[in-house]
Amino acid sequence: MAGPVTTIDLTWTGALTFDARTAKTAFILDGHSTAGPSPVDALAGGLAGCMSVDVVDILTKGRHPITSLTTRLSAQRAAEPPRRFESVTMHFVVGGAVPSEAVERAIQLSHDKYCSVWHTLRQDIAFTTTYEVVP
Predict the structure, then answer these.
(1) Angle, helix 39-61 to helix 100-109, in steps of 10 degrees
(2) Rg, the chain, Cα only
(3) What integer pLDDT is reported at residue 60 of this predicted model?
(4) What are the DSSP calls for 12-80, one per residue?
(5) CA-CA distance, 27 to 92, in Å (whole number)?
(6) Quick check: 122 pLDDT over 90?
(7) Which of 43, 80, 120, 134 is the most exposed place for a label (fewest CB within 10 A)?
(8) Taking 90 as the threshold, does the pLDDT of residue 3 lie above it?
């Protein structure tokens, strides 16, 4: 049986700007990154968001007292077209009395098993994660 289908409709609105609509949300994509994120920024946001959702979900299901999460993604792009991501670093700051081992496990599970965005990207991207837990 096939998995869920993701559909997005783009409508060009001029210059390099598009209205983007999914079944539940709408946003703007802008090749100049002024009216909304560029497609590459949106991809980076999708990766950071996917792993962040996983980390919160895993820690919450494990009954760890997470009170906040912030994530910073930094991606190095190739100098020449197609300027793909060559390396990605993500840093997670987890608030609450969450054991380091639980955070490490949540990040690893997201990366290795659950994050569909990561698994859609080329697997030869150098990928690094770091984290800190703040009470």
Answers:
(1) 130
(2) 17
(3) 98
(4) EEETTEEEEE-SS-EEEEETTSSSS--HHHHHHHHHHHHHHHHHHHHHHHTT--EEEEEEEEEEEE-SS
(5) 26
(6) no
(7) 80
(8) no
Angstrom distance (rounded) from CA 97 to CA 65 = 6
Query: CA angle, corner 19, sides to 18 and 24, nearest 5?
Result: 145
What's the mean pLDDT when you consider all of the chain? Answer: 96
* Residue 2 DSSP code: -
Question: Look-up: residue for tokens 């490490």?
Answer: 104
Could you give the CA distance from residue 110 to residue 57 in angstroms, rounded to a whole number? 10
Spatial separation of the C-alpha atoms in residues 20 and 9, rounded to whole Å:
6
| Amino acid present at 17 | T
Residue 104 identity (one-letter amino acid) = E
Tell me which residue has tokens 């909304």: 36
